[in-house]
Amino acid sequence: STTAIPETMKGVLAVAVGGPEVLEYRTDLPVPKPGNGQVLVKNTTVGINYIDTYFRGGIYPSPKPEVLGRDGEGHIVAVGEGETYGLKQGDRVVWMGSGGYAEYSAISALHVARIPEGIPDTIAVASLLQGLTALTMIRESHNTKPGEFCLVHAAAGGVGLWLCQLLKALGARVIGTASNAAKIEEAKRNGAEFMIDYSQEKDLVARVMEFTNGQGVEAVFDGVGKDTFEDDLKVVKRKGTLVSFGNASGVVPPFSITKLAPKCIKLLRPQVFGYIATREEFTTYTEELFRIIQQDKLDVKIHKIYELQDVQTVHRDLEGRKTMGKLLMRP
Ligand code: NDP
């Protein structure tokens, strides 16, 4: 039954393209109805991802007004028609989708997982999207092997800390970048062997070459984008892989592919949803992620749990490079 579901809810609307000021907290948003293949989740905690700032700021065009937010956890209050993979009202779930900055979200059941016993709900929501991003990239973007040197930019960020931990766990050697001493400490605690403060270091390329005995790295994982791309081409070794997966400093400008030729560089621009497009892919990776969290006792860093009303501050903190790990909000 859906009788307990109200007509309106608290949430945040991005009313136009712009800075954090376009994010408006509302108490009168319509509660969405679960469509075909969807479930309706009453959120307990929702996540913030850097991509939210791209939709808000217009780097990724999307219609406005819009409810941002790509992940959350809570319980299912209604199940739509069609294939919903056995999910039931009352299930405690973690999800990836859209429309997260709100009390209720209608989410494709394909990307909804029950939270296993033994994983706290906030850890589940802090892990799913960013953990799957890191896990799929170290498998599929570049199938990383023990002993390989990898460069991870923004290593103390949400995805960055996951990359550090997962790469370390498989025996790869992580060189990370971050913009201050506290972030450098955090990335090292999470498995980075060498760290470079790229806000101070004049010659990142020379430092990476030093750490790798002049060889360069097998793979670069770069969510920073514009500011780091040219250096990435210089530090990746012959036949190595450059995984460019984000634009925190801006979009990588168009470039000539002949730059890849001298070292036969593989260049990849993945998005996590492309690796978990089927239910089987999603459940296989999600179950593995949950297993890793429990067995390897991963340290899932939560920067802070904010109130939904403080959403403008959340975006300012994230874009102001003030955060480490995952940002969450309570609707
Ligand atoms: P982070 O927590 O990593 O925050 C972004 C970090 O980027 C900052 O903390 C900062 O770290 C660094 N940074 C470097 N230059 C700038 C700049 N000019 N302005 C702001 N920050 C800068 O965010 P997420 O973990 O949410 O995301 C990390 C990246 O991964 C993003 O680019 C995001 O879009 C991408 N992503 C891509 C996915 C995909 O499917 N392709 C999925 C998930 C995330 P520091 O201060 O140390 O430089």
Shape: globular
Q: Which CATH architecture of the largest domain is right?
A: 3-Layer(aba) Sandwich
Q: Sheet bearing the most strands, described?
A: 7 strands, mixed
Please bin the fraction of helical residues: 25-40%
What does it look like?
With 331 residues, the protein is an alpha/beta fold. The chain folds into 2 domains: 8-115 and 301-330, Quinone Oxidoreductase, Chain A, domain 1; 129-273, Rossmann fold (3-Layer(aba) Sandwich), CATH 3.40.50. The chain has 9 helices and 15 strands. The chain has helices at residues 50-57, 121-141, 158-169, 181-189, 204-211, 229-235, 272-275, 279-295, 311-319; strands at 8-14, 23-30, 38-48, 71-79, 92-96, 104-108, 112-114, 149-152, 173-178, 194-197, 217-222, 236-244, 266-268, 302-307, 326-330. Strands 3, 4, 5, 6, 7, 14 and 15 form a 7-stranded mixed β-sheet that branches. A 6-stranded parallel β-sheet has the order 10-9-8-11-12-13, sandwiched between helices. Strands 1-2 form a two-stranded antiparallel sheet. Strand 8, helix 3 and strand 9 form a beta-alpha-beta unit. The chain starts with 7 loop residues before the first strand and ends with a strand. The structure holds NADPH dihydro-nicotinamide-adenine-dinucleotide phosphate. NADPH dihydro-nicotinamide-adenine-dinucleotide phosphate (NDP) is lined by residues 49-51, 130, 133, 154, 156-160, 178-179, 183, 223-224, 227, 245-249, 270-272, 318-319, 321, 323.
Short description:
This protein has helices spanning 50-57, 121-141, 158-169, 181-189, 204-211, 229-235, 272-275, 279-295, 311-319, and strands spanning 8-14, 23-30, 38-48, 71-79, 92-96, 104-108, 112-114, 149-152, 173-178, 194-197, 217-222, 236-244, 266-268, 302-307, 326-330. The chain has 331 residues and is α/β, with parallel strands linked by helices.
